[in-house]
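Hey, weird one. I pasted the XRE family transcriptional regulator sequence into the form twice and got a warning about non-standard characters only the second time. First submission, copied straight from the form history:
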Amino acid sequence: MKNKLRIYRAMHDLTQEELATRLGVTRQTIIAIEKGKYCPSLELAFKIARFFKARVDDIFIPEESEAQ
């Protein structure tokens, strides 16, 4: 799944470590999500969206094959 997490993090001037701490996850989790190697749980996706005051689908973009 593609995402704009890195963009949202940069817009809020946060490091991966700072965002991870605020969300209660590890820095490695943030790195993996940003690289598209890990799809967060629905709970974590909503937590991220709430943190940035955005919608889940503004941050996470499903691939075309996933949307079917």
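That's the output from the first submission. The warning seems to come from a hidden character in my clipboard, not from the data itself. The beta strands are 2-3, 60-61.
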